[in-house]
């Protein structure tokens, strides 16, 4: 399976961001989406859902979500990952 995400170390905090399908953040399965990632993705995992206008809504630890919301999405080092 291929996912888009980022592994980030910001101000000494390691975390991952993973792009999820539209509707996931409002779904009961949102927590399992984060937990299903391989353990080599730093925890906590923040879920990112892209809106039709290109912006992102984030779900996860509040301080990290607030930080990410202050960034332009182009500042996030997105990569594609192949996971099994």
Short summary of the structure?
This protein is an alpha+beta fold and 84 residues long.
Report on the structure:
With 84 residues, this protein is of the alpha+beta class. It has a single domain (2-78), classed as Trna Endonuclease, Chain: A, domain 1, CATH 3.40.1350. It is 17% helix and 37% strand. The protein is built from two helices and five strands. A five-stranded mixed β-sheet has the order 4-3-2-1-5. A hairpin with a 5-residue loop joins strand 3 and strand 4 (56-59). It is globular and about 30 Å long.
Which fold name corresponds to the CATH topology? Answer: Trna Endonuclease, Chain: A, domain 1
> What is the CATH C-level name?
Alpha Beta
**Subunit organisation of the chains:** single chain
Quote the distance from N terminus to C terminus: 6 Å
Secondary-structure class = alpha+beta
Report the helical percentage: 10-25%
- What is the average per-residue confidence, as pLDDT, rounded to a whole number? 92
Strand percent estimate: 35-45%
Q: What string, H for helix and E for strand, traces the elements in order?
A: EEHEEHE
Count of all domains: 1
Give the helix tally.
2
**Beta-strand segment tally:** 5
Shape, principal axes of CA atoms? globular
User: Uncertain spans, ≥5 residues at pLDDT below 50?
Assistant: none
The gyration radius over C-alpha positions equals 12 Å
């Amino acid at each position: 399976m291929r996912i888009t995400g980022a592994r980030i170390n910001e101000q000494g905090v390691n975390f991952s961001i993973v792009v999820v399908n539209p509707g996931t953040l409002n779904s009961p399965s949102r927590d399992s989406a984060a937990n299903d990632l391989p353990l080599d993705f730093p925890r906590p995992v923040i879920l990112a859902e892209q809106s039709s206008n290109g912006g992102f809504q984030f779900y996860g630890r509040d301080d990290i979500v607030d930080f990410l919301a202050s960034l332009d999405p182009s500042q996030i080092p997105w990569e594609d990952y192949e996971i099994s």
